[in-house]
Amino acid sequence: MALTLPRGVRAFSVSARAAAGPRQARNGQDPMNIKEMGAFAYDDIPSLGHALLARKRELLRYARIAATEMPKLKEFAKPYAPPAADAVLRVRSHHYQGEAHPAARKTVLTVRVSDLLRIQALDSDAAAHKLRLLAGTRYEAPSGRHAEGSLKIACERFPHEAQNLRWVAERVQLLCKEANTNPSDVASVPLDERASLVRESKRKGLARHQAPTLHDFPQEWL
Predict the structure, then answer these.
(1) What is the DSSP string of 133-179?
(2) More confident of the two residues 107 and 41
């Protein structure tokens, strides 16, 4: 038995006969039909040219800002004030203008051991020796600028720079507090400077495959 649809009802896959016009007529009404486009009258530039013009407009906008808005920043200028004598912590961080970068949260703190002794954060030379032992690989051996060596602590475990700065500052406080506690107990423990020697060899380009010469030996050995 054949199934018949009621009058006025049609399947979804069937188009109305009135809506089905000639294909040529439909293509003629298509605004994206290439054949119906007019001839190029050389009155416009291609898309790449428009992109270059947009770039030049952006540069011109920044040039106007530099010429009109930058002079207003003089009102916020402050005279330079050198750091105080007790400001011995040196903090280094990177800031990427206009974009979020994962390296912007990293904070590196450097402090000289001699400065910690000067501001009396360390009680004695024995406490300074214990501090070097506690710091481990974060202690850099004495060089031409740092007569007593320095501590270098970095942190990027937290999402914000201020949090990492607070963490490294607290580590220095805890190290000084522990170094001042019974420093004579570890006075006879020698300091391991292998990490500093490795860093120094990398700075000078003294690779491991290069054979040592007489200039590399201490004078008292020769």
Answers:
(1) HHHGGGEEPP-SS-TT-EEEEEE--SSSHHHHHHHHHHHHHHHHHHH
(2) 107
